[in-house]
Fold this protein.
Amino acid sequence: MNPKDTIKLDVPLFIRLLEYAREDAKDDMDLHRVTENIISLSSIGETLGMIDYENIIGPQENIEEIRRWQIRAGIIK
């Protein structure tokens, strides 16, 4: 059993989550949702890896669509 609010991530997943937080998260609520998903997936005590990424952040299609709209709007390059 995993202690409450303890997570284990491998390094590739940790780096990708940092990239997500910096580049793709729209607001703090995205980060809270991701955190809740990580805590939930960590409840069995196993180390999370890249195989868990989509379950952590959700489908990538939405992020790519948002990025395209931000480019069109001139918000990002």
The radius of gyration is 14 Å. The mean pLDDT is 84. DSSP finds four helices and no strands in the chain.
